[in-house]
Each structure stands twice: as C-alpha cells, then as structure tokens.
Amino acid sequence: MEFFGSDSDDDGIDPLQELLAACMRIVPPLAGRRPALRLMDHAGRFATQAAAAGFDVVDGDCDVVLIASVYDFSRLPCGVVAALGQTGEIPGWETAWAGDGAAVYRKLPAVDRVGCPPRPPADMNEACRCARLVVETRRAAGRLPAEAYVDRAARVLRKEGVVILPGLLDAADADALCQDALDDFERCRQELVKKGKGDLAAAQQQHNYRELAMREDLRCDLRGTPSLTSEEGVERRNRLRQNEAIREICRRAATAPPSQHREGNYGLWNFDLGGPGAPKKALDAGAIGSVIALPGCAEQALHADAPHIYDGIHLPGHYYNCFLYGGEASNEPAAGQTGFVPGSHVCEACTALVKDAPRNVAAGIVRPRLASGDALIFDARILHFGLPNRSTKRRAIVYCNHTEYWFRDPKNWDDRVSVFDDS
Length: 423
What we know:
Layout: H1 15-26, E1 36-39, H2 47-52, E2 56-58, E3 64-67, E4 80-84, E5 93-99, E6 102-107, H3 124-131, E7 138-139, E8 142-143, H4 150-160, E9 162-165, H5 171-194, E10 212-216, E11 219-223, H6 226-229, H7 234-241, H8 244-253, E12 284-285, E13 289-293, E14 319-325, E15 338-340, H9 347-354, H10 357-364, E16 375-379, E17 384-386, E18 395-403, H11 410-413
Parallel strand pairs: 1-2, 1-3, 3-4
Antiparallel strand pairs: 4-6, 5-6, 7-8, 9-16, 10-11, 11-13, 12-18, 13-18, 14-16, 14-18, 15-17
Helix pairs in contact: 4-8
C-alpha cells in the first residue's frame, strides 16, 4: 500500500490542512467529481476549511469522514477516516498517512475469517495484501464511469495477476445470476438422478457433460444450461458479459508494451485485427458460466487454469476470467470463496514459489471475502484454489472468460453428451 507523508518543509503548517491534503491524495477527484466528506460530531467547525481543500461537505453518504475526537471506528459510515487528535493502530484499519497528532486510516477489505487446516484464518498482513488489489468503481455520489478506473485496474491486473472491483454490478443482478446458476444445478442434479447416473449432492457423479464439468467431489462447473442461456435473463447476463469496464481492463492488460518494430508485424492485417497501426482488439467474451461448490466440498488443489505460451518468457495475458459474487452464500463466511497467490502468474516468480510451496503460499496468499455485486478479474496463469464450503448453503460464483481470438478450450466443453439427452 502507499503511505503518504507531508509535502511541506514548513513546520508551522496547520495540522488540519496537512490532514486534508493527505486525504485528497488518497481519495482524489475522479471523473470531475469532488470527494464527499462528512464531518462527525465536534468536527463540524471545519466545514469551511474542508470545502476550501476541495471536498464536497455532506451529511449523508460520503467518501471520507473527519473526526476530531476519539471515536468508535465500527460506527463510522465509510472506508476512509481523517482523524484529528487520534493516532495509533486501529484493528481492521490501515494507517495510510500519519502526521503530528493526526492520521488517515483506510478500512481493510474483508478476508477469510474461517480458515481451513493447515491454513489459519486471514490476518492483518493478508488483509493488507488484499488491499493492494482493490480498485474502486464507485464513490458516494454513485457509480464511476469506466474511464475513471480501467487504467489503474489493468495495471494492477498486469502486476499482481488479479484485481478486485467492489460494487461493479448491482447486487440485485449478481444475486439473480447466481440464483439462475443454482436453479440450473438443481435441474442437472435431478435429471442425472432420474437417469440413474448418481446424485451430484452426494458426490456420486464423476462424468463430464456438455453443460456440466466436474472439478472435484461436490464442486462442478456449469455452462450452457437453461437459465444461463434463457432469453429472459439475457440483459443481466450481458451486464457482465459485455461490461465495458471488464472488457477494457482485459484488453489493456493483454496489450504488449509499445514497440518501435510494430510496423513490421504485418500479419496484423489478417483476422480483422486492423493492421499494425490499429489499437489492440478487445478480447473475446465467452459464455456465462458458474462454479458451484456444495456444502462439504473440500479445499481445491492449488492450480493455474492455463499455461504460459513459452517457458520462461512472460508475455501479456491471453486468458482472463471475471468472477462475480452474489447470492446467500456471499453473506456466509463459512461458505468460502477463492484464494489467490498474487504475482504467481509470472513464470519466474512461480518457479521460486513452488520450490517451497507450503511456506511461500502461506506468506503470499490472499483470500478476499467479496459481497454481492463485487467482481474479480484474474489472469488464468495465476495460482489459485477454491476454498472449502463449510456452510449449509450452495455456493455459486458466476464467471465470464475473456480470451484472445485464437484461444480455445476443448478440454471441458466440446463433444460431450448433454445432461438433458434422452439416452
């Protein structure tokens, strides 16, 4: 995380001005919108100075709160706190800047608090690692336009192999998509039971089908199922599949650095790529799918979804996956989600990591706990794993793959028998 200090050599600077300046660096104006600041209790007398520093002073939803007395942080209404007269460590908050008798705190993102032996629950260090991956998509005034954050998100994705986008979609859409997936899972389960093929909910199914690919016992992948292809749900699916921000983040992350030799890449005149002078074409968005994890499923083995094209040469990504979280399980910590090892999408870094995988994964793991409407994009080369589901709820994570035009995945989905065939 970035830590900010004073810009001034003037020891006589007003502590309030210094505090507000630090806040403005941490929550700068975006898309022409000034950050909204709320003054709590005794801080009301600072309204004029806050407005002069570039904030919109508000009474309701805000991006920053300013406190001027010792305060219970659990009662504060947003994730950035400017504290005048209060310093020191606050559990669950990161000190983003500290001055003389003042500090700015940033709330750390939620992470896994359940753990699965031998992995303990997430600690403060893991929460700080998770914070490096977060790129805001909303402010108190509402949703930000994509151009306000796609460049930063693409840079995080290139560097870390994963980026978190809180509130990218409305929670209602995310919940509905996850329910579509759960409804389709139950249809598949009942159809296979009726045909005497075993019960997915009892770990009795090991075969792959056109619409269903088994991952492990009690964990499977759905695609092309009735609700996930219905005309009724096409608009909410397209809010994920054709999302402007997601597609642009993936396109920028997959773009190679500028080269003086690009004019020599004459093959770019083929495949509708526009020629050497054209910007990189958007990646192809695949069909909407879902990973279903049933109660009792174990922790997944550490893995990557796709190989590097060449050993030892780190190229821009060619396959990105966007996860969308929603449904009742997203509110249940014991249901688990997904763990990642940031930076492991780089072949050189992964080579060093796997030489002592248990220790290095433990030191670098991130297990974010995301809410309905939150999205996460990851490079398919990154090491990751599904967490166990220790709840009583079925967990659905909806996804959309974004791949280069030449990439195909025949392993799981091609030439399979349909769950719904009469045979």
